Amino acid sequence: MFNVKLYNKISKIGLDQLDPAGYACSEDFEDYDAVLVRSAKLHDVQFPKSLKCIARAGAGVNNIPLDRCAEEGIVVFNTPGANANAVKELVICALLLASRKVVQGANWVKGLAGTPDIGPAAEKGKATYAGPEIAGKRLGVIGLGAIGVKVANAAVGLDMEVWGYDPFLSVDGALALSRSVKHVTELDQIFANCDYITVHVPLLADTRGIIGAEAIAKMKDGVRVVNLARGELVDEQAMAAALESGKVAAYVSDFASDAILAQENAVTLPHLGASTPESEDNCAKMAVKEIVDYLEKGTIRNS
Ligand code: MLT
């Protein structure tokens, strides 16, 4: 019998897999063998000696104290690829939101509520909320992991010219990448040449602020940037200044920050990338399987 501590609500389909296996799950355990977590930050949590593994139902593991886990012999799993389709779909949506002022236009029309003859009144927004098509534009994808590869391939399907950068492109990633995606070896090639840039790298010391003032200065005037990965990948003060000056024409992110919220040409979401029932089920099932396989067989698998 193993105890699994839940730090977040996890999809029922995953928890149901634990029941037949005879596990007890609770948010209240003080002694437990495994942790299931989604986005809760565990940096300040003192783990019991009984803890053997942590499974994160998601891709990023920046909410987990990896160094301490390594010292204490706690194995950490994530669920790579399990939410990649959900995130890819929102990134495609974000590229379109960075172009066509759907959110700004819709908000403006809401403000017309109660206006007599609202149809003609709303048409006045046509020119104000116009925006370019993405077809034929060049998209730079920074990071070609499970999500980046899917985004790159989907953007090819929307007739974008796609360039991808990843210093650690895996064999699987290379095989999954459409032949129409140009793989560049320097990040600056993305910065200097792309009309749209989307970032799909984990948050690490090396990637924090990867899109900062210096990178933005190298970008084309009027570039449109999407960041659904981690807020800290972008220096938000630098981005706010670039939005203000028009250097960056639009920024769509999945993280709220005061500096960005004030900008008319920014769209900010509440970290919705993986928020689909399909993705939540996939992540929960994979995370539970990782725990069960490890506790029962000692198998370490991240998929
Ligand atoms: C992830 O790390 O998997 C994504 O950011 C999605 C999420 O955590 O909600």
UniProtKB/TrEMBL annotation:
The keyword Cell membrane does not apply. GO terms for molecular function: NAD binding; oxidoreductase activity, acting on the CH-OH group of donors, NAD or NADP as acceptor. Residues 95-272 form the D-isomer specific 2-hydroxyacid dehydrogenase NAD-binding domain. It comes from the Bacteria. Pathway: Amino-acid biosynthesis. Keywords: NAD, Oxidoreductase. Residues 25-303 form the D-isomer specific 2-hydroxyacid dehydrogenase catalytic domain. Belongs to the D-isomer specific 2-hydroxyacid dehydrogenase family. This is 3-phosphoglycerate dehydrogenase. The lineage of its organism: Bacteria, Bacillati, Bacillota, Clostridia, Eubacteriales.
